[in-house]
Amino acid sequence: MYELVELEDWIRGIEKIFTTVEVPEDKRVNIRIFYLTGEANIWWKNAEDGLLGPNLTWNRFLKELRAKFHLVVVQW
To answer: For the range 29-35, what are the long-range contacts, defined as Cβ-Cβ under 8 Å and sequence gap of 24 or more?
Structure first.
């Protein structure tokens, strides 16, 4: 399972690439699939049919990805 730090590092890294090569917001979702590996790639293959479409923005993709791979920490 992705560690929280690994996931956030991946997100920051891919966003650096998008900024550097000036990837428009509407193209980011399509490009990110080339950068998914391991469990995240398997998750995407299982989730893509339900998520693909005009409502899948980069921000929604990140929300779904974080929901899947962030550990929930409960403080007592």
So the answer is: 29/56, 29/57, 29/58, 29/61, 32/58, 32/61, 35/10
For the chain, list residues with pLDDT below 70: 1-4, 71-76
Q: Which of these, 24, 51, 22, lies nearest to 36 by C-alpha position? A: 51
Q: Which residue shows structure tokens 């992705």?
A: 2
Question: Residues 6 or more apart from 64 whose CB is under 8 A from it?
Answer: 47, 51
User: Is 59 within 8 Å of 32 (Cβ atoms)?
Assistant: no
Q: Cβ distance 10 to 69 under 8 Å?
A: no
